[in-house]
Design a protein that fits this description.
15 strands; alpha/beta; three-stranded antiparallel beta sheet; ten-stranded mixed beta sheet; Rossmann fold
Length: 327
């Protein structure tokens, strides 16, 4: 393009495909084949200055010559045509194995297409149990499983996954021809790029570098953009007693239903309902206790619990040092 001038229209068309991305002069010149000393090379700076005025790009403020391509937005018409109400997403919550009833709060929470549930929990206290229960109870919707818990480094199901699925003998995991009724993907990074549209996607668990935990917000936004009419169940690690998964408030930004798992005594699990965007009756802050048995797959004795006045610090208290009493 050193002999033919790059027009502003051509530049706009090029940038329209990069909305939301960060670009530089060097990137544009390389991608568009602009040669040093050519007319198009020299005109790029004033052209970008005009595009800044038009709000097509904006300087990032971090490095000279670095721009964010603005994601364009057009007016959305709401009332000029008939629009169907967004239906609730029919998601079955995990069940108590003894009663085969869903978790007691399930009917109070409203989920919609494109929503995200986060399951944040301490190590070895039920995150994968809950995730696989969501998968099993909704098996007829052909859910998608991915994450660190389910596949080996050579992209095979882990022995622990095989054992757990076998132990969940009340779930029919295969079709009549023996093929899987769910989809297992060996994904350990680039989660958003592997989300299967319009399906239940279960990611167990999302691993981020310790110095980049704030990126969970952007990652969840990207995954929600990809899931379409499906739903996300995102498993995250959590510190003991913390009020949010790793990433703190950033992990709450795009969640629609937050379930937090902690220790309850020596062997039970405490489930606390965190943020909930839509509900029939108020559920945030309610707490529940349960046991996990049979290779970590059966949820037993699921019941609502309330904080004991002694907070688990009084010897001989009826809470037995757990800090919670059955409601």
């Amino acid at each position: 393009m050193d002999n033919v001038e790059l027009t502003e229209g051509e530049l706009k068309e090029f940038l329209s495909k990069l909305q939301g991305k960060v670009i530089t002069y060097r990137f544009i010149r390389t991608e568009m084949g602009l040669k040093p000393g050519g007319k198009s090379w020299n005109n790029l700076r004033p052209q970008m200055a005009r595009l800044v005025e038009e709000k097509i790009v904006r300087p990032t403020g971090r490095n000279p010559g670095e721009f964010k391509v603005v994601s364009q937005a057009n007016r959305v018409i709401v009332f000029d045509k008939e629009r169907e109400a967004s239906p609730e997403f029919e998601l079955i919550f995990p069940r108590d194995y003894d009663t085969m009833e869903e978790m007691l709060f399930a009917g109070d929470i409203i989920l919609r297409e494109g929503d995200a549930i986060t399951v944040g929990g301490v190590s070895n206290y039920g995150k994968t149990t809950v995730a696989l229960s969501f998968c099993g109870e909704n098996i007829d919707q052909n859910p998608v499983l991915m994450g660190h818990e389910y596949t080996t480094m050579d992209e095979q199901p882990t022995p622990r996954l095989i054992n757990r699925l076998s132990a969940m003998d009340w779930i029919q995991w295969t079709n009549g021809d023996g093929t899987d009724k769910f989809e297992l993907l060996p994904v350990r990074e680039d989660y958003a790029e592997h989300i299967v549209k319009d399906r239940i996607n279960i990611i167990d668990w999302v691993n981020l570098d310790a110095n980049q935990l704030y990126n969970i917000s952007q990652l969840m936004q990207d995954m929600k953009r990809e899931v379409g009419k499906g739903i996300l169940i995102i498993v995250l690690q959590k510190g003991e007693g913390a009020g949010a998964p790793r990433g703190g408030q950033f992990a709450k930004d795009f969640t629609d239903c937050e379930l937090l798992l902690d220790k309850l005594g020596n062997y039970e699990t405490l489930l606390t309902i965190g943020k909930v965007k839509e509900y029939r009756s108020r559920v945030m802050g309610r707490t529940f206790g349960f046991e996990i048995a049979n290779d970590g797959v059966r949820i037993l004795n699921f019941r609502e619990v309330v904080r004991c006045k002694c907070w688990g610090k009084k010897d001989g208290c009826e809470c037995l040092g757990k800090g919670y009493l059955d409601k």
